[in-house]
Amino acid sequence: MEALYSRPGFDRKLNVVVLGAVVMILLAFPPGEAFDPLDPNGNITIKWDVMTWTGDGYMQAQVTMYNYQQYRHIEAPGWILGWAWAKKEVIWSMQGAEATMQGDCSKFHGDVPHCCKKDPTIVDLLPGVAYSAQSANCCRGGVLSSYVQDPLNSVASFQIVVGKAGTSNITVALPKNFTLTTPGPGYTCSPAKVVKPSLFPTPDGRRHTQALMTWNLTCTYSQFLAQRAPTCCVSLSTFYNDVIVPCQNCACACRPNISQPLLSTVPMCVDPEDVFAQSTSSANQRPGASAIIQNQAPPTLLYCSMDMCPIHIHWHVKTNYVDYWRAKVSIINRHVKNYTMWNLVVQHPNFNNLTETFSFQYKGLTSYGAINDTAMFWGIKYYNDMLLEAGDNGNVQSEILMRKDPRFTFTQGWAIPHRILFNGDECVMPPPTSYPFMPNGSIKVKTGLFLHVVLALAVVYLATVL
Length: 466
Ligand SMILES: *[C@@H]1O[C@H](CO)[C@@H](O)[C@H](O)[C@H]1NC(C)=O
Ligand SMILES: *[C@@H]1O[C@H](CO)[C@@H](O)[C@H](O)[C@H]1NC(C)=O
Ligand SMILES: *[C@@H]1O[C@H](CO)[C@@H](O)[C@H](O)[C@H]1NC(C)=O
Ligand SMILES: *[C@@H]1O[C@H](CO)[C@@H](O)[C@H](O)[C@H]1NC(C)=O
Ligand SMILES: *[C@@H]1O[C@H](CO)[C@@H](O)[C@H](O)[C@H]1NC(C)=O
Ligand SMILES: *[C@@H]1O[C@H](CO)[C@@H](O)[C@H](O)[C@H]1NC(C)=O
Ligand SMILES: *[C@@H]1O[C@H](CO)[C@@H](O)[C@H](O)[C@H]1NC(C)=O
Ligand SMILES: *[C@@H]1O[C@H](CO)[C@@H](O)[C@H](O)[C@H]1NC(C)=O
Fold this sequence. Notes:
This protein is α+β, with helices and mostly antiparallel strands and 466 residues long. It is built from 5 helices and 26 strands. The protein binds 2-acetamido-2-deoxy-beta-D-glucopyranose (NAG) (8 copies).
């Protein structure tokens, strides 16, 4: 009787625990409140500079997007910017970008505007477009680099000529409801705010011209809003234990068809993310955006695996020296897709004294001033900056040399990173209980060539004496 009675109580406790966990997750990633502890100020700032106004209501403006995120970039098929006009504005023409839909311009006779929609959707032009359609910082197919990896290409801009836009800073109405998609969700944009007009130096730097009016807005990313399944997983090995800890089963998705062979020479599984993108593209995309997905990115195929992750990261604790230790990180692509500007962010307590990386570029991300335990890695131009599609060449790797921190230990998984992000997406780590443990007894410390030579000489000496 008592056992039967206590059951529901137990379930209720469990429910409270589950509810508590859900609340904590919601508090950690509140919808719309983006906060990335590794990049607390990361945002994309969009600035409109009004360059000219004419008496009959034309406005020419320059729109510039600055990616101030340290490691999150926007890959092909690229950024898609949207807003809603506050009044009856129309876009007469654009340079360096275009509206995906013209909309209903039947009220116009003679000259027809570029776009008459109340909520235009703007995309970048493709590289190689006619020179007359270009503007500075345009035409990269919507690709926007991260601020750390490639500051020059972290800026995009286009020019726009707007009709019925008012004739001064009093009669103009700021566009509303800005949206930024990539083409998936994830970014939330603030309302536009009038700020101090931008200054533009003349080429000789002796004079500055000034925008007639400037407004700014910022868009911030939240993994919660992006609702993306993980895209990468981590496996581990160490020199002190033969165990290789694989990626977690179902880390990114579960294998859709168990009878599909794992060790196949052809990619047979569809990328879980493409399945997701296609199921949501019709539901919450602006018109034209889904066409871009379909035109530019047919579903990509993946080599099937137990974790179904397109990207597999392997962390190997490789060598122990007296004052230093060495790890090796490999990024393995299982996707039939090239990653042109991959980056990796790794949080490890010893990165405060990262001494050298051998085949990657790196920069410490100092999110909290003195505590710099996070580093960003990316490829060396023309050598391994492109992570090639799955196959023999579909991997990049580098060794990392670190000077031992005072807290350094091989026990308790200290040598294993806390977090790893690939292209800004958090990778699934194996559970800490599975980390390779230190076997009993101490580890042999590599003491350098000198000692080896001394030992070898001693052995030779002993051998000749005896
Ligand atoms: C956006 O990023 C810039 C550069 O890091 C920063 O100065 C600015 O305060 C950020 N804006 C917001 C609203 O976070
Ligand atoms: C902006 O979005 C809000 C909420 O979705 C909506 O009520 C409002 O009408 C929109 N404004 C314009 C100008 O479309
Ligand atoms: C409009 O511009 C004038 C001067 O150019 C300035 O004094 C005024 O504050 C501006 N008004 C707004 C709403 O920005
Ligand atoms: C508006 O954005 C631009 C570009 O990021 C920046 O230089 C400027 O300081 C911003 N203005 C304000 C008042 O935030
Ligand atoms: C699963 O894969 C096998 C072998 O590739 C195939 O014959 C079978 O039709 C697949 N089943 C489903 C439900 O896709
Ligand atoms: C990836 O890049 C290589 C070398 O540039 C090229 O041969 C291959 O076709 C590309 N693969 C895809 C899927 O674009
Ligand atoms: C961490 O900070 C120290 C001193 O503040 C600096 O010497 C070191 O280069 C930084 N590490 C990284 C990875 O940037
Ligand atoms: C980093 O290494 C240097 C010697 O290379 C040492 O003086 C310093 O204390 C170390 N810093 C930390 C935070 O361990």
